[in-house]
From TrEMBL:
The lineage of its organism: Bacteria, Pseudomonadati, Pseudomonadota, Betaproteobacteria, Burkholderiales. Its EC number is 2.8.1.1. This is Thiosulfate sulfurtransferase GlpE. It comes from the Bacteria. Gene3D superfamilies: Rhodanese-like domain. The chain crosses the membrane at residues 26-44. GO terms for molecular function: thiosulfate-cyanide sulfurtransferase activity. CDD domains: RHOD. Keywords: Membrane, Transferase, Transmembrane, Transmembrane helix. Residues 62-152 form the Rhodanese domain.
């Protein structure tokens, strides 16, 4: 045991060992690690669910020409939908998934009323070979709460 501190001080240097054993420094290191984790948390948690906010979805549509697929029933789609959205009911998705987009490398944005059906549909679309599948977090409800436009019978609302 007597040789252990000597070898540690040779390996780390005397200053490093004192740095890591000082209580104040340990608290500062813990604060840095915790704050870094909290800063990364939104990114880490988003990967699991794959949801985009209304602002992020708008950027995806405008900058990358994402195909917007509305999975709601026809009556809900007619009441108001995202501009440029194509309608395909969730029940028909499995049969028509191959026809969503010609190029499977183009981004696809799935939309439903609350975001729950879109998460289920995302698995189906990914299994069909589409490389980039996104879900509008909160669905059309969140889109409208964010003040984004909806189209009803050809007119923006």
């Amino acid at each position: 045991m007597a040789g252990l501190p000597f070898s540690i001080s040779l390996f780390f240097g005397g200053f490093s060992v004192k740095f890591f054993t000082d209580y104040t420094n340990l608290v500062l290191i813990a604060i840095v690690l915790i704050s870094g984790g909290l800063l990364l948390w939104p990114t880490i948690s988003r990967r699991g669910r794959g949801g985009l906010s209304a602002a992020e979805a708008t950027q995806l549509i405008n900058r990358r020409n994402a195909a917007v697929i509305d999975l709601r029933p026809s009556a809900d789609f007619a009441k108001g939908h995202l501009p440029a959205a194509r309608h395909l009911e969730f029940a028909e998705l499995q049969a028509k998934v191959a026809q969503l987009v010609k190029n499977k490398s183009n981004p696809v944005l799935l939309v439903c009323q609350t975001g729950q059906q879109s998460n289920k549909a995302a698995r189906i679309v990914q299994d069909a070979g589409y490389a980039e599948v996104h879900v509008l977090e909160g669905g059309v409800d969140a889109w409208q709460k964010a003040g984004m436009p909806v189209v009803k019978q050809g007119a923006a609302k």
